[in-house]
Each structure stands twice: as structure tokens, then as C-alpha cells.
Amino acid sequence: MQDEYRTIARAGVHETEVNRSRFLCALAPAAREQEAQEFIAAVRKEHADATHNCWAYVIGADAAVQKASDDGEPGGTAGVPMLQMLLRRDMRYVVAVVTRYYGGVKLGAGGLIRAYGGAVGEALDALGTLTRRRYRLATVTVDHQRAGKVQNDLRATGREVRDVRYGEAVTLEIALPDADVDAFRAWLADATAGTAAFELGGEAYGDA
Question: The whole model's pTM is what?
């Protein structure tokens, strides 16, 4: 698994103009390829009167799925530069659709490549991006007497408490960077006089 990746902070649309052609770049998060395709279909429907609706998406923290379409623009002048911009910015789980309304001035291959790639870059800057980092999930089980202090200490040190369950004891689900696991185990033993149980689970991504 990748240690971290970037994704968009929010969905949105950013418009640029190049030689009287309007370029509207719509960005959205997409956890699965199907979501990306549904978003593309929705934008195409909304802008059915546009000259072109070119698109690109990257799915997977390791960029396992990468697809792009020129939608009638000369081959390699639209979808590929859009995809390259997403990859250059380390973007994952994101879909971009650039809608072009032709303004009467031909841009040429180089101009198209700059316009489509630039539309995606500007939209990323305008909408903002987030870094998501890989964490180990872990479970801490502690008695009720010590649970409150442990929770407060976790939050005070910026640890992410994902879930709290109350039963005979209190179970806290937390997320830790891999590198912190040993130090955290030692801290927990010290903070609870060795009474807390600590169990490592799987991996997940969270906001860095």
C-alpha cells in the first residue's frame, strides 16, 4: 500500500477561457470506477450541447486504474494531458471532466494539450486538495476508571479516536502511523500501569 496519496477537498467546477473557447473543468471524488463513469455521464448530459466533454480519472491509492478520453479532440490532446496533470499532482480517487465550448479559434495540438491539462491544474488549485496517509488500525481496551483520561490524552496528542464502545471495559478504536506503533504501545503501558490491552488490526487511510 502507498504511504500516502492526495485527493480533492471537494467536488466543484472551475472555468477558464483560452482564445474564446470556454473550458469548464468539473472535479469529483470517486471511490470506484463506476462512480467515475456515473459522474462523466451526468456531466455529458448537463452539457450535451458542448463541443467536447473530455475526461480522465485515477482510482486506487496506487493509481491502479487510469483512464482517459479525448471525446473527439485530436488523439492525445485532451484526455491524456488531463490524466498526466492528475498523476503529476499525485491525485487519486478523482475524476475530471473538461467541457469545451468552441469559440471559433483553433488552438492546434500544443494549444489543446496546454488548455486541457491547464484546466485540470487550475481546478485543483481552486478547489483544493487533501493528503491522506496510511494508518494502522488498533484497538485499546481499558477499564472504566482509566478510560476518560486515556481518551483525553489520545486527543491531546492528536491521535485519531475512530470509535468508542462501552461494555464491561471500554474499547477505543484508534489509527496510528506505522512508525508510531512501538512508541504508542510503551506509552499506553505506562499511562495505564500495564492494565490496558492493545491489539493491532488492519490498515486504512485517513486525513494527514
Answer: 0.73
